[in-house]
Amino acid sequence: MTALLDGRIAIVVGAGSGIGRAIAGRLIAEGARVVVADSGTSEAGMGADPTVAPAVAAALGREAVAFADSVASPGAARQLVDRTVRAFGGLDLLIHAATIRRDVRIGRAEPGDWEAVLHTNLSAAFHLLAAAAPSLAARDGRGRVVFISSSADADYHDGQAATAATDAGLLALMRAAADELAPAGTTVNAVLRPASGDDATPTAGLVAALCTPAARAVSGQVLAVRGDAVEVLDTSSSVRARLDVATPAALADDLATLLARTHP
């Protein structure tokens, strides 16, 4: 039986731990080959550990390769895409799950704190998308982009101005890119990161569903797993549906049907 994502080639940025690691594993389980991109930096964006990406790639098996450099610049993003195309022959799926946090109150924040969060959480996503767009467009409608965002409607705490700004910017970038890349058949969506301590497996299943052929009509959406439901959010309303995240093929069909009914 052919795997759901057989032959698909993916880059997962931030695959060294957490939700990125879970997504990389799920994509491989569904038949994809994955570039594990992670510089091994801390949650605050400090330092780097070049052993993280190779260790995860080795644990995931022969369908994974590592990229241990930071990708937060245009040149590095192009290098990652070029290396992926050389290694596997193309690029179908781009998942950006890398974020940092520096929670500092506005009146006490150093300019470097603000710049570091915007650079990693938002600018890097744009640079990667710009570098990958031609390769994704060349895949005959198979191109998929998923941004992992902290939240679309979070109650941000004091000190999280930079996180709030990058979350809003990432969702705006997603919607603009969905419109711009639609003629090439590339879909662009955002999925909310699971809360700290929550099982990342259902969210990884949702991401896998968005990467399937059945999700070709699902684009420009913000989605989340909330308990046993998948929630589709937009600026005016949200739709909750109890969809099976354990079966990405069925989930993709159900999402397409749901959106056709509620977002005509």
Indicate the percent of residues in helices.
40-55%
Number of domains: 1
Class by alpha and beta content: alpha/beta
Let me know the largest β-sheet.
9 strands, mixed
Which stretches are poorly predicted, pLDDT < 50 over at least 5 residues? Answer: none
**CATH C-level:** Alpha Beta
Q: What is the strand content?
A: 15-25%
User: Average pLDDT across residues?
Assistant: 85
Strands side by side in the biggest sheet: 3-2-1-4-5-6-7-8-9
Tally of helical segments: 7
Strands, count: 9
- CATH fold field value: Rossmann fold
Folded structure, characterized:
It is a single chain. The chain is α/β, with parallel strands linked by helices and 264 residues long. The protein has a single domain, classed as Rossmann fold. The protein has helices at 18-29, 52-60, 74-88, 111-137, 161-181, 201-210, 248-262; strands at residues 9-13, 33-37, 64-67, 93-96, 144-149, 187-192, 222-226, 229-233, 238-241. The protein has a nine-stranded mixed sheet with strand order 3-2-1-4-5-6-7-8-9, with helices on both faces. β6 (187-192), α6 (201-210) and β7 form a beta-alpha-beta unit. The protein is globular. The mean pLDDT is 85.
